[in-house]
Write a structure and sequence with these properties.
Layout: H1 9-33, H2 36-44, E1 48-50, E2 59-61, H3 83-93, E3 98-112, E4 118-131, H4 132-148, E5 157-160, H5 165-177, E6 181-183, H6 190-200, E7 205-207, H7 209-214, E8 242-247, E9 257-261, H8 262-274, E10 284-287, H9 294-305, E11 309-312, H10 332-336, E12 340-343, H11 345-360, H12 364-382, H13 388-393, H14 396-399, E13 408-411, H15 418-427, E14 432-436, E15 446-447, E16 460-461, E17 466-470, E18 486-492, E19 499-500, H16 504-510, E20 511-513, E21 519-529, E22 535-540, E23 544-546, E24 552-554, H17 555-562, E25 568-574, E26 583-588, H18 590-599, H19 606-610, H20 613-629, E27 640-643, H21 663-669, H22 671-679
Helix pairs in contact: 1-12, 3-4, 3-5, 4-5, 8-9, 11-15
Length: 681
Amino acid sequence: MKLKEDMNPLLLQVFRSVVWVCSFITFLPWYFLSGAGTNLDRARRVKARSVSGRPAGPYRATNQAGGIHQKLVWSLHLGVDTLDKVMVHGATRFPERDCLGTREVLNEEDELQPNGKVFKKVILGEYQWMSYEETYQAAVCFGSGLAALGQRPQCNIAIFCETRAEWMIAAQACFIYNFPLVTLYSTLGGAAIAHGLNETEITHIITSKDLLHSRLKVDCISPVRALLTERYPSWSPLPSDIAVIMYTSGSTGIPKGVMISHSNIIAGITGMAERIPDLDETDTYIGYLPLAHVLELSAEMVCISHGCRIGYSSPQTLADQSTKIKKGSKGDTSVLKPTLMAAVPEIMDRIYKNVMTKVEEMSSVQRTLFVLAYNYKMEQMTKGYRTPLCDSLVFRKVRSLLGGHMRVLLSGGAPLSAATQRFMNICLCCPVGQGYGLTETCGAGTISEMWDYSTGRVGAPLVCSEITLKDWEEGGYYSTDKPNPRGEIVIGGPNVTMGYYKNEVKNREDFFVDSNGQRWFCTGDIGELHPDGCLKIIDRKKDLVKLQAGEYVSLGKVEAMLKNCPFVDNICAYANSDQSYVIGFVVPNQKQLTVLAEQRGLRGSWEEICNNTDMERDVLRIITEAALSAKLERFEIPKKIRLSAEPWTPETGLVTDAFKLKRKELKSHYQDDIERMYGGK
């Protein structure tokens, strides 16, 4: 649905006038105190400059007065230079403050679906909280128990567990006792799990009962001997000691273990915290992304460093409409009412599409009111104003999807589409801090400032890092390009990690140390730096394919453009260098495709609809129209597609836990379709 182009100008003017009069009468004092001018100045100011004066950089963040930071920042609190001290800092300052919260499971039921499948539904109670002091003491005791079981300082220990309070307690125990923590995604395949465990030579695994039997395939374990009653002394780590060996879920090949020191993470969370305005102990964060992912671990450590509450959730229980929540029961956001949340674009895209589908189903009057309010608020935001009347009357119900109190959303893991970002800003009434970082940089690189409502950009470098652009001749990207410098993004700073575990070849390829002793990481992503110092991700070296006729196609760019199509829930573009066109694998939106099938008089199961060649042809036509509207070149538009009845989830092994496409696995999965679409079979 187009929210701007199709709007009647007269209706918009009438709506604007009515809202202005109401706002003048009801919210006049607020407008004088809103600081709209200050917000505009903040949004428009230069946020980073080249230290060298050269277009290639390095670029560093500026302070509020416009000066370049002379030194990269690496510590949040004086003397807090290791992760165990972050927990001690929180327990000392906020001993009675709620720290980690978990909802009580009141009941579980099996619910039969119309298609014959059985879904497990839960009824959950209130959050039960551990204070900062209780959390710290639990971590000390757990660490002492691990020592009693033979775990020794600077010897690796693995955690293989879902995101939950026990994960964080176990991690804090390892930080306190200087046990390097090996993190593995709970959705990794068996070969990847075995690789990580064998490579790091661990002797102990921290896991849950469910994963012990379902993923580690252990049917019988010997009884654990009673822990010694004496408490083992902790072994404080040094800032340079390894805190975490984090195995990436890996979009290609075998996962790599990234060695992250205590000082690396401290620097990363210092940079992240600086971009979250007014962060303090009154904030509540909802944790549901995999803690084995650097985005979630860093976000939760930011919260602990500021005394925030962390309430745990899961993608299946997040909202009232989530898959495991029994109808009529409340999801986690409704109960917790969080103010902070980290999210990957895949989840925000789902929220956006679901709400827009409901808008399409509204009466013409309701839909017109919604679109008027949407466009009015978009216009006001560009002027630096907020719209309390629209927020209260029109967007309150949408905002309640995430509890109604959300004030900052952090987005990472993949690019966020402009349409979804605008939707989150407008309908959820909170800014989206879109960030860019990698496991190799502790998730830190850039984050957009909260009052910057521009789209398609990931903000300026954080105060802990700096960025240079390296020419990539093959792709045609140079720092001397006009109007803006372009090139491979290279990140430097104290947040750049120690390298890959037992992989010197990749370390030499991807990391280097400059003459000043600073570490740098070559990301493989292509960026463009705007005049205000903000970065835009425009390509990826691995995603660039040269077609038979010599044209270069950025698969990631094609996917990002086409994911905005209402018929597309997910898409993977594919091309061979010995072929002249692009093909695509599409997970279609079930509601949209079902309606289209009914209009065509097609009956059958969901699998039969997706496998129907007429449906493929119709969806390809719709996608082509969307591609042309997005101004893709003809050679970039897929000429053939395959509809997938099965959604791509981390459990299927076709996407990572951050929902990035695993191109190698997708290629293998659809190999027969690739041969058919390219071979004409």
